Prior knowledge:
alpha/beta; Immunoglobulin-like; five-stranded mixed beta sheet
Amino acid sequence: MKKICLLPLSLLFSAFSFSQTFTVTLKTPSYKGGVAFLCYHMGKNLNIEDSTVVNTQGVAVFTGNRTLPGGIYSIVFPGKRLTMDFFIDKQQTIEIIADSADLANAVVKGSKENDLFQQYQQYVVSKGTQMQVEKIGYSNSRTKKDSSLHEENYARLNKELNEFRDSIILHSPQSMMTLFLKTMKEPEILYRSPKNRKDSVENFNYYKAHYWDGITFMDDRILRTPFFLPKLERYYREVIPQSSDTIINDIDYKLLLARTCPEMYKFLLNWLTDEYISPKYMGQDAIFVHLFEKYHSKGVSSWLNEKQIETISRRAYMQMSNLIGVKAANIEMVDSMGKKRALYDQPADYMLLVFWDPSCGHCKEELPRIDSIYRASWKKHGVKIYAVLSENDKKADWVNYIIEHNIGDWIHVYETKELEKSIADAQKPGFRQLFDVIQTPTLLLLDNEKRIIGKKLGWQQLNDLLETKWASKKE
């Protein structure tokens, strides 16, 4: 059973208030009481639209002075163990007759969309049962002849199922059933058995180009389904190349399409913001910054409250100055002897910025490892380490750690209280904002022009990156 979300989607969807009304009447002889729920599919959850008591005659009436957005809805029966899906679209006076012991034969009246939906469900159940028999037969086959027969039968049944779906799309092109079948449909594969890399590349390019066939992003009915969100997740996480520029171009195009469909626009912008506010791959923070600069900062996400906008804005400003490829900000701090050591005054083929705290448990694990690889390899390749104390009230512990662990040949600096105050008085961003230091250790790798080429990586990943750079120089 789907997870039921008892909280309204206050962020995404505001209440709809029109002059029309909806009425969904449930007749279920299996119950003489209890609370039933009218829910709608949204992503991976069922979200409650309305609830009512089932009377002693087994009747529950859901009604309201508003029109329900089109989509796949569900009755959740008392006890929350059983659910039954149906469509709501333009026709909004619907009667459902359902025996909980035989939901497969429930009847939905008052909607042509549901007539088609029930035909589809019955056909799928019938074909699915036959296909399962063939799968079991294939697994139990003892001869090649038997296994081939079951394999052929399964392929034939699957072909018939796909042809049935295609016939609905052909003969009922404007129906909600067609919309949802198009959303669920997978693109054809050019080469079932690719023989070389060229075939595989063409397969991928064709799949990507046709992934959204039939979906316009201008119809918000597909939002209230269980399969649109997984399709969206798969596309941005697995299908589209993970280059920031590629994703940004794709995002802008889809949001442009969705501008005429407010609920789709809200859904996409919210999901994309959540997806890339903490990106999984280095460099993808540029996507979140782009979403902030082009959309949120322009006031288009007016449905967000002040706290949400503040959170998005703060995170974007933390990332803006340390994107991959930009020049790092020049910071000027002092060493343990009080001597100024500006970052840009330290020439190096590669500079590793380390923001750390001597009392941080993770720092105590990582710094010795960094020093080991630095001495074994990095140092002879012209790498320098510019290490910044993240908490200036721990100066004594900081000095002791440097001495005890013999890492004095790093460039160790900290920001004095006076420097910190002067930066704040001048209303300039501090190093935490400039380098997105929200945890320790935070590591950034700079090239000889102080451009950021790596960030938020562990020492092993940094070493791999450096090895790649050195190898490419040799070539």
